[in-house]
Backbone:
């Protein structure tokens, strides 16, 4: 509410001076920035085939702009100010930059127009005169007339935002919120069905493939294990029934032969002499019988 700032300009004259420069620029007074842009708009409206209704609308907009700037200047300068607050230095710097631009930006319009090659038709003296007149008229109306007299029956609708069958709330806000809810539902559906559904489906397919791979890998491991067990059993049978039996048979025969040989070596002299005589007799017999056969 602008009325809460009543009298603030007298307690902060520097800030008020900066605001006044910006307000006069917005009202379109020369040589401030908006004077040149407003002249271009008025000239385009005047040169348009629809000038009969475009020019009055442009002039009315200029008057209203000057009026609310005049009203703001009066409220800030008059009234009983509340306890002033210390200004924020950073905000003061920002406001100073904006005020400087509002005061000097109009000076670069002509060089910028020449650089861009956008040469506009010269409007003559009538357009600047109209722009200055409506700007001053708007400032005067805003400064001199109270809002009730200035707007008349439009004051209450203006304070309510000019409601038309529910106003901006019904024509703009509610449709925008409905569209936002629709977009949110669509976004949620896309995320839930498409993105998350695709992720879940892909994860399930990947899990199924991994499970199949584990099944075949386990089957391969079991097959290799069974093959190794079969080879081990064959090796066990071969070792036990063939190699061990041959080794143990050889050992048993060697032991038996040694036992029999040991019996021949009894250590008795008469037995040894008898065996010697028998051996000599056997050899002698073989030698004597050999000529008979060969």
Residues:
């Amino acid at each position: 509410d602008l009325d809460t700032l009543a009298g603030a300009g007298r307690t902060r004259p520097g800030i008020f001076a900066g605001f006044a420069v910006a307000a006069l620029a917005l009202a379109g007074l020369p040589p401030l920035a908006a004077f040149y842009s407003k002249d271009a708009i008025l000239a385009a409206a005047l040169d348009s085939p629809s000038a009969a209704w475009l020019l009055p609308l442009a002039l009315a907009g200029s008057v209203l702009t000057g009026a609310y700037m005049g009203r703001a200047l009066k409220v800030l300068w008059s009234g009983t100010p509340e306890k002033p607050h210390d200004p924020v230095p950073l905000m003061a710097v920002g406001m100073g930059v904006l005020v400087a631009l509002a005061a000097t930006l109009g000076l670069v319009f002509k060089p910028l127009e020449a650089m861009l090659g956008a040469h506009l038709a010269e409007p003559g003296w009538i357009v600047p005169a109209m722009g200055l007149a409506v700007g001053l008229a708007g400032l005067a109306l805003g400064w001199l007339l109270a809002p009730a007299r200035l707007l008349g029956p439009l004051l209450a609708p203006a304070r309510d935002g000019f409601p038309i069958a529910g106003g901006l709330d019904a024509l703009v806000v509610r449709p925008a919120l409905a569209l936002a809810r629709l977009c949110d539902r669509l976004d949620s559906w896309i995320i839930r069905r498409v993105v998350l559904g695709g992720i879940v489906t892909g994860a399930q397919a990947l899990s199924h493939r991994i499970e199949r791979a584990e099944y075949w890998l386990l089957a391969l491991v079991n097959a290799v294990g069974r093959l190794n067990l079969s080879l081990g059993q064959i090796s066990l049978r071969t070792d036990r029934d063939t190699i061990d039996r041959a080794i143990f048979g050889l050992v048993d025969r060697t032991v038996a032969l040694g036992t029999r040989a040991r019996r021949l070596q009894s250590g008795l002299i008469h037995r040894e002499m008898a065996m010697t005589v028998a051996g000599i007799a056997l050899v002698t017999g073989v030698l004597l019988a050999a000529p008979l056969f060969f």
Notes: The CA atoms of residues 176 and 182 lie 10 Å apart. The mean pLDDT is 76. The radius of gyration is 60 Å. Residues 175-266 form one domain.
